[in-house]
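Data card: per-record layout.
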Amino acid sequence: MGLLSKNVFCSEILAYIQCMIKLNPIDNDDPVLDQSKLLHALQQTISYAETQGGIGLTQTKAFNRKFAHWGAENFNWPDYSAEKLLRVQKVLNEEDVPPVMVLHDIMSIAKWGRHTKGNFQLSRSLKSLAANRGQLFAELAQLYLFHYNHARLSRIDFTAPGNWDIFLNIINVEAQQGLTEAHLVKTLYGLDQSTDPFDRVCRNHQWFLVSEVLRPLVWIGFLEENRASEDRLADRIYWKTPLWSKCMKLDTDHYLNEPIRH
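The structure for this 262-residue chain is written out next.
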């Protein structure tokens, strides 16, 4: 039976809740900040907006194609590079480049800018924060992990039981030796990976964890993911990065042993 089996999971936790996990401060010049792809993309976006006098908007107030294409070229994000994305489409809109869409969402949530006269103009608070890289990361991570609607990038309309406090504490232990998605589903929900194409229960739980837990942790720089082999269908293995250890103090820290990589 998994940790979050419906038989034992209390009703108060069934709803998605925001936990009050506080991240430890990071020095501005700490090289571990380089592990955050989302921080790098945000810094690039700030630089672009300052040099271009803002970010152009479409009539629906999305970031325009010029910036979406620029982001795909400059964010150093292999999965969403312009070369890869343009293989399947002729132009790039905001929604075609997920990091661009996510950053626009976060900047709007944080009130780090405003939409005015066809442009997105950075706020004074963001310009000031940009000079303090450690604090910029701390606020970005808090907003993105605990306040952003990660279902925006999900392929399914499904929510599994759990909250960030549970997810982080379990991953803290399980990813110490390398964690697969199937293992996390088994640990949390007691579900075994199925080869039955019509069995969507395990797949839904797995995709929820990928899109709303594991991928956000990878994007913010707390986890790194690798394929077990060069096969695109091979299992992904997740490891904690040094940024995880520096930023978070969790209840399960006392269970940790030295990681062993194979």
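Known properties of this structure: The beta strands are 55-56, 113-116, 119-122, 179-180, 223-227, 236-240. Residues 31-146 form one domain.

See the next section for split statistics.
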